[in-house]
Batch of 4 targets.
Target 1
Amino acid sequence: MACSKCGTSQAFYRREQEGVILCKKCFLDSVETKVRKTIVAKRLLEPNDKIVVALSGGKDSVGLLRILWKLERRFPPARLVALTVDEGISDYRNEAVAIAKETCNELKVEHVVISFEQLYGITMDEVASGRNELQPCSYCGVLRRKALNEGARRIGATKLATAHNLDDEVQTALLNVMHGDVARISRVSSVPWKTSAKFVPRIKPLAEVPECETALYAFAAGARFQSIPCPHGGDALRGDIRTMLNRLELKHPGLKHTIYGSVGRLSEMIGSASMTRKFQACTTCGDPTPNAECEACIMLRALKTTAHATDKLEFAQVG
Ligand code: SF4
Ligand code: ZN
Ligand code: ZN
């Protein structure tokens, strides 16, 4: 079967919601074009930006780095740096860091690694082994967000690009609704906004690319990426939402894009309210926060107290 775009090459991928069949080259071009259009339409980048790409070593971030690297070459004043957060997860993150390094060496992109241990004095393995109130992912998400901002700030970035794809964005929006946290919907937006000089504006150039296409892009581009799952598991509710959305998308192609569009419009309405929120310096770390202390510092204190109590308990049990 011939490609719907070039009419010559062999079919590689069928994009249901557009009713087209693409060859490998046209598929790769179409994803890059989609990302470029998102960047232009939402004014995600300026020609002289210093862009830090959050590079986990997974399919999405490896694909994003490759796409931004191609774009950057067309805008010589822009600079690209990759930042990997090492959460301290044995038999998992080491491989991802190695893949991230290898990718950066190949593309000749500067690579910086920042670790939870270095920043917070605790690893995710220690968090997961403690008797804590929340699931490991709840701590990991907050601490990784803070680590990325800290790393990007140290590098002197003007934008922090994360590899959230369409599925991530739609799942997060539904999760926020299910948790009753409507105000957080304003964060599901790929438009960069700056609430404080200490926050590096975040952009999500892959927000309109579905997960199946980010995976296929990395594969078709011949990229190496990590595919083993994290041993600390994922969020169970997010997993259920993912399954439900994938079933619905099969029956109703384009549904994820429709939900994303609706969330974007809602986000614009709520976003203006969020942007007027007052921020103050966290009493512990000095980062901007709407409360007296930031979420990460509150979590870290609880984690360290639990770790201490667990050590004492285990010592008493051994004794
Ligand atoms: Fe962190 Fe959870 Fe992701 Fe593992 S699955 S890296 S613990 S957020
Ligand atoms: Zn083609
Ligand atoms: Zn703090």
Note: The CA atoms of residues 84 and 113 lie 5 Å apart.
Target 2
Amino acid sequence: MKIQDIQTIQELLSTPKKIAIIPHRSPDGDAMGSTLGLYHFLLKNNQYPVVISPNEFPDFLAWMPGSETVKVFEKDKKKCTNLLEEAELIFTLDFNALHRVGEMEKVLEKLVVPFVMIDHHQSPDDYAAVTYSDTNFGSTCEMLYHFIAALGKTADIDKTIGTCIYTGILTDSGSFRFPKTTGTTHRIIADLIDLGVENSEIPALLYDNSSYDRLQLLGRALQNMKILMEHKTTYTTLTQQELDHFNYIKGDTEGIVNYGLSIKGIVFTAIFIENAEEKIIKISLRSQGDFDVNLFAREHFNGGGHRNAAGGKSEASMEETVMKFENLVSKLKT
Ligand code: 5GP
Ligand code: MN
């Protein structure tokens, strides 16, 4: 972090303030981990923080400390709008473009108080007074650890804050496998374990907490998988009908996309998930190596993300969306 930014933050936090902390829409482990980690840190520092999520967070994160205090904009627009309008400082975590909060964007755009962005995605927009953005980090949670350290407050990181940070590092690194996992990442993890963070229990809460329906849904997605061997690509689909059949709840499709890369020789994979209510096909993209799915998502599917993990959406039908994808892949040099 730049010295000047650290000073700005220290200045902003020198008096108690009402602070809104915002993750991206459909928050994942890193978005929830970083917002809740910051929430507990700010509480400890005599602030009045509140986490406001644009929409509901998945059930499999409901065990996280402080999740019961999270306000959900889509569930209570009036109250959340009031909280946002009253806030004297806004943190936006794990995203870097205001459209990632969906409908809440309209409220945020009108606010005149300072914004602080902490994020690890490419090409940040220019809306924050302090932009702590670095694509070298595998997670926003790892950045939060450095952020707290830069404020000279490492000693504030306790088991609760550590649990939140651990969760985001774990989930965004694919359990410490993805290429941005460094020695420093592991040293932070080691420190968190020394603070009492339950490094065996947290992965179990996240990954061994499935329902029978969810596993059957995974089975269906695996059955639906197509392989385009010539282009080292796989993809799969889940229609709304299939989701309904397996009593889909939010979070059930988390991680399914990764299976597409587990086949030998595959470097690019996608999952297309129908959302009848929003009338879109939600797309998740993953790659291994140099193929840049962030660019692919930006150019073709109104999305973005990172080089090896990105997402987007399509307003066309499932058939048309898949056809467009196959067409694009046939022109790729993967
Ligand atoms: P996922 O596939 O797990 O939903 O997302 C993978 C990555 O892509 C995440 O870092 C996420 O923030 C980003 N991402 C997912 N969907 C979108 C989208 O619609 N727009 C943008 N800009 N980024 C997305
Ligand atoms: Mn993240």
Note: The chain has two domains: 3-206, 212-330.
Target 3
Amino acid sequence: MSNSPVVRPLQASASTPVPPVPPGQDEGEGGGSTVAERAAQKTEPPRLYQVLLLNDDFTPMEFVVMVLQEFFRHDLDTATQIMLKIHHEGRGVCGVFTKDVAATKVELVLAAARRAGHPLQCIMEAA
Ligand code: TYC
């Protein structure tokens, strides 16, 4: 008598048929032949969010310019133009980011403004 386990061949049996590839879903040209290719075709680009500053009567212009330079990497000239646009029009776009990055920018700007004692408002909106 043998103690060897029974080894069955690795093939489809009559009870587990392999389904045929449906028409139009084979691996023809442009159909994607790897898991990565098929996933890439389904992946939507991430939604983008604008981060905006709102005008108020109390936050110093210099502080807003500093925020635009330090948190949004604008040069002095661009930061000054954006600050003046906010001052005159009520709001202005600091930058456009993915959701997590936009939310982090808002938190960092609000924390800096509160620490400096300014009422500056910073928000994000779907772009
Ligand atoms: N209006 C402010 C002032 O006159 C300046 C200011 C600009 C404040 C932009 C906020 O988001 C702002 N000191």
Note: Residues 1-32 have pLDDT under 50 and may be disordered.
Target 4
Amino acid sequence: MTTATTIMRQHLIDPEICIRCNTCEETCPVDAISHDSRNYVVDAAKCKLCYNCISPCPTGAIDSWRNMPAEKAYPLAEQLLWDSLPGQVALDEAAEVGAGDTAAALPDDVERIAAVSTAGQGGVAPPPWSAAHPYVNLYGIHAPAVATVSGNFRLTAEDASSDIRHIVLDFGNASFPVLEGQTIGILAPGLDAHGKPHHVRLYSVASPRDGERPRYNNLSLTVKRVTADHEGNAVSGVASNYLCDLKKGDKVNVVGPYGTSFLMPNHPGSNLLMICTGTGSAPMRAMTERRRRKSAPAEDGKLMLFFGARTAAELPYFGPLTRLPKEFIDINLAFSRVPGQPRQYVQDLIRGRAEDVVRLLKDENTYLYLCGLKGMEKGVDEAFADICSRNGLDWKAVQAGLLQQGRYHVETY
Ligand code: NAP
């Protein structure tokens, strides 16, 4: 006897590829995605197949599907234990299926997926129209690129509270093309508390596309040694401590590159409005250095930077930054912990430069980048709303336009 059974297209996350960046969980409008210390998982009962999470995922781990009899969908508890995705079950073994159900369910879903990927707007901003083509996912965890450390320099003063390092990785003969704004994944050696290999940690590339040293096959990272979590509890960051302790000549397993959105425009006259805190300065350094090396001031647009750190001694690249000519870049530094001085944040300086910032916002050639601490997003958003309303603009409308046109890019953690 044949029983009609509903076949569902179950949305899953591939634990082998997932880099645990939390983007999918943040994007999901119905809270169907959750995680524990090991895996990110999708609740089949909540997922509405809106596909909003598909496009923002840097690795494609999110784009995993299995056709399942609805009543046999993989429960969360089972997904949380996976080290790899199970294969596709043979449906006629898993359930007695009414032939019409399978035929009706699948083509429609396939079509919906195609529609979403061609729209390319599933929750992630498009790149600037003139951005160069980014290469992504060239190396995965099963076949990482092996880079050699060619430098590891402390950027912060010896007596500063944070140890921030500029780490240069050389790829030798391996092809590892990156653009400013892209990230790479680091595989720290060793095992986690579950006896599994550590998952991938992402870092923004801090050097321009032609290398930390021009025409060398290398790149740089800006890494802060993590010694406490966001609540101030003592923890030892696995990848950051591994990276900060590397010596010249050490080998590092690298995956990626990742990122197709947070990219810089390449057309003449484009302005960069960059806002960052701490090590969120990495992509801003890459973009600024790209512009500096290209150096065709008559053609290039404006560069305006708002950069927040605890003190000057804690600000990565403080020395080189302050030596850049004023006509090349308009630098605004906010220090929050200078003894005897009031706390200053990037959003305070944005308010202070309202007229110039609004002028840039009104220019259709302006591209806005925000990178660093998650907490600054709200403050910066309020500052933009404030200065816009004082100048006859509606920030929400301006922001929506910027997003749609690939002119507003945020990377905060
Ligand atoms: P940090 O030193 O802790 O803070 C930098 C500055 O931001 C300090 O002046 C701090 O002020 C200020 N700040 C704190 N909360 C703020 C808020 N709500 N609004 C505005 N400013 C605020 O920064 P960090 O440890 O370097 O953190 C940088 C972040 O960038 C991390 O979350 C990291 O994951 C992320 N990131 C790193 C990379 C990379 O490649 N390394 C790339 C992208 C993003 P207080 O004195 O009040 O603390």
Note: The chain has eleven helices and 15 strands.
